[in-house]
Amino acid sequence: MTASPRVLCVGEALMDRIERDGSAKEYVGGSLLNVARGIAQLGHDTTLASWWGEDERGQQLAKALAEGDVHVLPGTSGADHTTVAYAHVDSEGRATYEFDLLWDLPEQARTDTYDHLHTGSFAATVEPGGKKVLRLVKEAALTGTVSYDPNIRPSVMGSPEQVRSRIEEIISFCDIVKASDEDISWLYPDRAVEDVMRSWLAMGPAMVITTRGPWGAYARLAGERDMLVIDPLNVELGDTVGAGDSFMAGLISALLDAGLAGSGQARRKLREAKWADVLSALHRATVTSGLTVSKLGAFSPNRADVARVTDGHPELK
């Protein structure tokens, strides 16, 4: 019997201090923590490699991950203090961020015991951790599959010119790339989203997806000529915190289930995949993201939550 694929998520876990309607509360957060917890809640063996302190905030991160069934790579709590993201949520539920940031990776970070690597956000571009993330991506691409979400944070990533080459280098080693239309517009202000997606696909990935908030998502496959448009789940908006991370978690989970991620063989299958092969994965990503935006904060749906939606909408299975 083949063991289930093991997933390694590499990137930030931090405290989100969210200001809304004149008050502020702190929540555990960070793009890679959200994705790791989302994948684990969907039933997959998931480990997070990150960087936080042995302070009260770091202890809250460790507790939340343990409660979410996410393993933590030893050495992750080696930072001088835990990063804080200050998020301001506007009247439409959209969040903007500023950071008190430390970023590195523990020396124990390696990929040889994992089958799928996911990374993204500022982890790939902020040093000294960024170069270590790139090394892990290159290692993981030799034997398993790799996914990436640039998840742009201008306040810590500098200018597009400073990070574009690193982002494109990582894309060239990836199988699955997901970005928001806002990410692409920041990186390439003079180019259309569709044009950027085509150029990214030509760099090497088998699947490129652009999320577009209330307008759903665009998807491209190496094995298909035309672009697919995916409608969003129709829900009442709580806020958009963690929406893209939840989409990523649902997508990775379903691709693992379908044998389209998690091994060298899965990489080859994904490169040859047609829309019929990946539609259920795109639907799961849409459902998990929709469930997240229907709540306040970075809610991570489990399989029962997803099933309650798909049971009522069998076209989403």
Automatic annotation (TrEMBL):
- Could you tell me the keywords of this UniProt record? ATP-binding, Kinase, Nucleotide-binding, Transferase
Q: Which residues form the Carbohydrate kinase PfkB domain?
A: 6-301
List the Gene3D superfamilies: 3.40.1190.20
Task: State one molecular function term (GO).
Answer: kinase activity
> Which InterPro entries does this entry report, sorted A to Z?
Carboh/pur_kinase_PfkB_CS, PfkB_Carbo_kinase, PfkB_dom, Ribokinase-like
**What family is it from?**
Belongs to the carbohydrate kinase PfkB family.
What name does the UniProt record give this protein? Carbohydrate kinase PfkB domain-containing protein
Protein's organism? Winkia neuii BV029A5
